[in-house]
Amino acid sequence: MSFKELFSNEVYSKTGLARYIIMSGCILHYGWALLMFLDPRCMGSTPISGIIYIMGGSKILTELMLIACSSLALWYISLRDGATLSSRKYAFLLLPQLWLLCASAGASIYAAYKGYYLDAITQPGLFIIVQRPHAFILAGELPVIVMALLYLTAVIFNSRKKVRCGPIS
Amino acid sequence: MWTNILALFQSINPYSAISFASMFISLLAFIASQLAARRREGGDYIQRLETRVETLKRNLCDAEARIEMQREQIVTLNAALTRRILDNEKTN
Known about the structure:
The complex is a heterodimer.
Chain A: H1 3-6, H2 9-15, H3 17-38, H4 46-54, H5 59-78, H6 87-114, H7 119-122, H8 134-162
Chain B: H1 2-11, H2 14-91
């Protein structure tokens, strides 16, 4: 199978890849929300810090947002196979989680670019900035970046199966 | 000029830039998904039209075959009617 065929509509629809990608994103966000609830110190980690900044530094709001976005995406997964959605509903269910994943990936890329973990910034004065090799940080943050990229492709390619548009003019 | 631009970029809060960039990427993903959906719908519409054309062609062939059969029947009946008329004239 060629690279182009891998992303063809037939293969993508048959294997149902999007479902598993979205599910893994949901598990990731539920896991982060649970960890934040159990131990707030994890808020300093690089991927989560991007989301916390967007939420204005509020722990409760971040947890609620993570749970809400994952629940919307799970609602999308729970739809039956042949169901089609309007564009607005499709965007409402999937784009919030994509936004959070992109924020986490952006924070990870920034940390790799700077060469130090971002908890030194989120808690200034408490931690010392320790310069690490860029590849060191990138290797650790790569799963989050890959997750965001996969989710992005899932949102784009799965719309071919799921979104019903208006009449073709 | 380039140093000013660089200074401007460096003065931006990186987290703000990340949040705006992630919103922008989400918006682009939505637009791309809409384009992909419309392209698929356009392809489906063309496929439906082609199927409809094939069905109409088949119906046309069937109708032509029926017309030909009925024409032959008309010819046969006409011949039989002509013979009957001639026979009646002979007996009369």
